[in-house]
């Protein structure tokens, strides 16, 4: 990505908020099982306690990442409708003549619109481009190209 605040599509925003809610709930459940200052019983109990504490730390790190990304997206505002970036919807025509609308995303998940992650070969080729430009990228079958027909903001 660009290194500055990156926009995010409405769908990406929804996915991050959903993951954040799930992680917060999971963290609450795991944290509730920690004993705190109570003495731990046998070594197996101690190992379980250490694992749960480690899980809370891991969850805290991921929660902080997501909260930071959501703050960044808020600062960045809506995706550009002129230059392709994360969150943009892009209509492309592939060399075989097929046209498809894709969304440049940080996260890959199943949904109706095709998602292209920003770090995939096609995603990398599209970032920073404008309507009318031709991009080339590598596929498992070799080099491919596509013409950018339109750029819009995700949603």
TrEMBL record:
Domain Transcription elongation factor GreA/GreB C-terminal: 81-151
Keyword annotations: Coiled coil, Elongation factor, Protein biosynthesis, Transcription, Transcription regulation
Domain Transcription elongation factor GreA/GreB N-terminal: 7-75
Keyword Transcription regulation attributed: yes
GO molecular function: translation elongation factor activity
Stretches assigned to coiled coil: 13-76
Superkingdom of source: Bacteria
Record protein name field: GreA/GreB family elongation factor
Species of origin: Kitasatospora cathayae
